[in-house]
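Course assignment 3, question 2. Fill in each field.
Student: A.L.
Task: Predict the tertiary structure for the chain below.
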Amino acid sequence: MKISQKSLYLILISIMLLSFGSRAFAFASFSVKNEEIPKTKILFFGFDSTDPQINSDISEILERVRRNLKSTDLFEIVKQGGQMEFSMPKPVTIGVVNNQAPSNVIMPEALTVESLPNFEKYSKAGIGAIIVGQFNRDSVGNLEVRIRMWDVLDQRQLFGKFYSASSDNYRKMSNMISGEIFKAISGEKISHFDSQILYVSEIGSASKRIKKINLIDFDGENRRILTDGRDLVLTPIFSKKPDEIFYLRYFGKRQPQIFSLDLNTLRAKKVGGFQGTTFAAATNPKDRNTIILSAIIDGNSDIYEMNILSNTAKRLTKSPAIDTTPSYSPDARYIAFASDRDEGQQIYIMDSSGDSVKRISKEGGNYSKPVWSPDGTLIAFTKIKSNQFMVGVMSPTGRGEKILAKGYLVEGAKWSPNGRYLIYSKKRGAYGRESIPRLFIVDIITGFEFEIPTPEGEGATDPDWA
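Answer field:
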């Protein structure tokens, strides 16, 4: 099917607006349940000091840890000395953490990092886990932290860690502590608190909208604005190279194309020698010099694989239909993509060579933006059905489709590095503040949704997560 200039415009607009274009603890096994899981009650001990400055530092660290854990909805934090009272056992020496000798510090009475908890008493009080901290200042002023976490039900240590950080690295240390707690409770092997998010910010009226690519940490901090807003930019993605991203750019009056951006110099470079429009790029998980993208050449939209070093491309689809938004499987053996070759826009899978094309979407509606999970067991997608936007997941065979989020405009899902969460952009309504798109994540196991902090009054779309 040849694509006219008007059709090309509509395709790109749709991409912009609609994206159409164990128990280590209790639930280590991976499945999509979307059901409520009881929160684990965690009791913190030793997160205070007689030294006012150390106490202030501890408060900063603990607040960040609490904020991180709250974003998962998996924990209920019980404060030491709070409403629950315990009869504490006498300390019993059982060893040290990570081969670190005990520091000469003043600890709160009762439980310490060298103590064995009275598991029976905590279990009766409904406590699921105990986290004990010990804090000290070393000779150069760094804060030394020893952490030990206990599983009350199984009566065993979950982890023991030692950290040392200067004040400008407290946030990093807080994320590391939060990550260890999250992994111990959830059974995940990777935490997401130290991850980064790319997205497009937008301000201004519909006719004079300014879009810029932003890079933030998971908690919304350390924001970097990577583009100046003079050109329209869309769909940024992380490269497999740590100092590079790719994005769609409308460069002056030229046709929109994929560019790379050096995160150190902020210099942009066009990818490939295509004369037509390129868009919807995705990286190859096994080859950092290869990407896959959609290109409109001679009026037809197809999927191409490109080697960035040699600047050569291989055409993978040759259908007269509109083939777009490709995504590699984690082993790079298969490619999922969207195409309108049959019954509206649907999701298909093919071999990395472009052979053996098979439709997998089966539940009705129009599908787009398939994205493979990091472990290859699921494919996320955006869907429109009965005039409602949805984000969901299905198996690579198309079975087990599960809708995780619905709304006025919900689209563009991407996976967290650990495969536990999806991030997407959502508008709540057509007018006022509800018309401003924001970023949300959803836990694919519990269905809990959490908003990622971005500046008030700015729209946030096209997220990617690494």
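Instructor remarks: The helical segments are 5-17, 52-70, 119-124, 170-186. Residues 199 and 290 are 22 Å apart (CA to CA).
Grade: pending
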